[in-house]
Amino acid sequence: MRDWGKEKTASDPKTEAKELEALARDWDWHVRRAVAINPGAPIEILRHLANDQVQWVREAVAASLRADGDILEFLSEDGDGFVRAAVALNQKTSPGALTKLSSDVTMDFDYSLSKNRYIVQEAAAKNPNTPEEVNRTLADHGDEGVRAAAVSNPKVPKDVLFDRRVDPSWSVRTAAARSSQATVELLDYLAADRIQDVRAAVAMNKKTSASSLASLAADRDGEIRAAVASNPNADQKTLVALSGDWAWKVREAVAKNPSTPEEVVRALVEDGDQSVKKAATARLDR
Questions:
Q1: Global pTM?
Q2: Which is nearest to 98 in space by CA: 55, 66, 53, 62?
Q3: d(CA 52, CA 238)
Q4: Residue 270 phi/psi, 5° resolution?
Q5: What one-character DSSP code corresponds to residue 39?
Q6: Helix/strand/coil percentages in the chain, nearest 5
Q7: In whole angstroms, what is the distance from residue 265 CA to residue 224 CA?
Q8: Beta strand pairing call for 115-118 and 107-110
Q9: Reduced to 3 states, what is the DSSP secondary structure of residue 78?
């Protein structure tokens, strides 16, 4: 039976190092994993746990931001794919180790998507420390999951991102639309995408132009119109039009938007929906 109290102590940053050392040798791997997760765990304890016989403990060490280069280099050669994937996600992992991990073709079946996924390559593709040339290679991978991961990298080259606007996978195009690296030109193009999720991502991006937002304000999907109504880049004409939308979620978003003119917010205080009225009142109080 798991000892939840012991696990809580093992994960508490205030627990003294001497006690953590004892807990790191506990018979229950859940307790040892809790020590590995502890943000205050000394590096010596993490070195010990990096050799643990249970993969979930080693995976926790691999994910720790307290793990140093030696630990991460060691675990990058671990026999378990999930451990290597955790190393590939860790933002303290070196570019050299990430380059090696980018060639790791370990797969695992994702029951939520009913497909196999390249778990290590996806992780490496997302890491901002991954070298640009590696990211370019992964962005052209044959698997849509790896391409989407590469596109979601906060340091993805803008030309790579722009090239993905015509990717056959909507998940990749959605990742491109969500990117902080997305250009106005890219977002203008994706605003007309046939897939709802892509258009919704464009509507939420703070870089989307007022003209594209005006176009999306007429979208048949209420969630997209609500996203437009929440975007501070939406111009006043668009917000005024959306303040009369039939969907209360859209009107509520208009009331909360800092770009909405005060007279529009005052009108929404008299809205028939309580959520809209409450949002407008709170906005005026601020």
A1: 0.91
A2: 62
A3: 58
A4: -95, 10
A5: T
A6: 60, 5, 35
A7: 21
A8: antiparallel
A9: coil
- In whole angstroms, what is the distance from residue 21 CA to residue 38 CA? 12
Pull the structure tokens for residue 249. 């979620």
Q: 88: closest CA among 99, 78, 98?
A: 98
C-alpha 177/C-alpha 57 separation (Å) is 36
Q: For residue 164, what is the DSSP state?
A: G
Is the Cα dihedral 175, 178, 180, 181 positive or negative?
positive
Q: Are 130 and 107 contacting, i.e. CB atoms less than 8 angstroms apart?
A: no
Query: For helices 222-230 and 248-256, what crossing angle results, to 10°?
Result: 10
DSSP assignment, residue 166?
Answer: G
**Helix (H) and strand (E) counts in the chain:** 21, 2
Q: How many other C-beta atoms lie within 10 A of the C-beta of residue 193? A: 19
Q: Is the dihedral of CA 264, 270, 271, 273 positive or negative?
A: positive
pLDDT tens series, the chain, 286 aa = 889 999 999 999 999 999 999 999 999 999 999 999 999 999 999 999 999 999 999 999 999 999 999 999 999 999 999 999 999 999 999 999 999 999 999 999 999 989 999 999 999 999 999 999 999 999 999 999 999 999 999 999 999 999 999 999 999 999 999 999 999 999 999 999 999 999 999 999 999 999 999 999 999 999 999 999 999 999 999 999 999 999 999 999 999 999 999 999 999 999 999 999 999 999 999 8
The span from the CA of 243 to the CA of 237, in Å, is: 10
